[in-house]
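ugh ok fine here u go
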Amino acid sequence: MASYPVVLFDGVCNLCNGIVKFSLKRDRRGVLRFASLQSDAGKEILREHGIDENQMDTFVFVENGQAFTRSTAGLKLFRSFGFPWALLYVFIIIPSPVRNAIYNFIARNRYRWFGKEDSCMLPSPEVRARFLG
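structure:
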């Protein structure tokens, strides 16, 4: 698991599931791994990095043994896709409190704007191996 970048996401959030589907299409090398924040694997990774496992309003990107959250995690994810998506990483120059204020506003409203499922999404058989327990 440590050799692959890992994306942790809210498995019942339609916006988050959309980001996972978007990521699967753009991860040309097929190296990203995914786990919902609600899963045992997701909770274990959160604990390993000292992140509250009950915090479902964050997005986490783990790369090279380091966990990034919120807007930084999103920018790191986009950078992993390569050109042209990696160009979005330029927004890292915006101070994280500003970026995260925008992130937090979207996170607080994500269920209202994009909806919520009753249970976590089930990956298709073609990509199931890229999802951690």
